[in-house]
Fold:
Amino acid sequence: ELGRKGEKLLSSEEKFLNMTLEQQGKLFYYNPRASVQHWVSKERVNPSWVVSRAYWQGWSEAVVAHVLGQTRGKLRREGGLRLLKNVLNPQNVLAYMQANPQAQVKARIRISFCWGYFSQVWQRSPD
Structure:
């Protein structure tokens, strides 16, 4: 269920792999001296793309949590609370009223992530 598919910016394959290895008592190795070069296209440096990406990151994290054993009921409670906390968070509300575009984008990213998580856990039938 993870990985890019068409317009869906699904992700978290590496996170899923790491968490699966940990559940099996295995380890993964991190080398801080490893060098990775990554090219970022122009469309990915625009706030709308980043907000959309945050939505799909929330969706992906809900998929990983469910596949690794969290019940749909628990995910729904957590997703609903997370969404409410971010939508009603005074910091996010104030960001929308300010003329500071950076603060507005940060608030949109937080809410979009929560909306993606919430949307994923409510799109299927309960366990």
About this structure: Helices lie at 13-23, 47-67, 72-87, 90-97, 101-122.
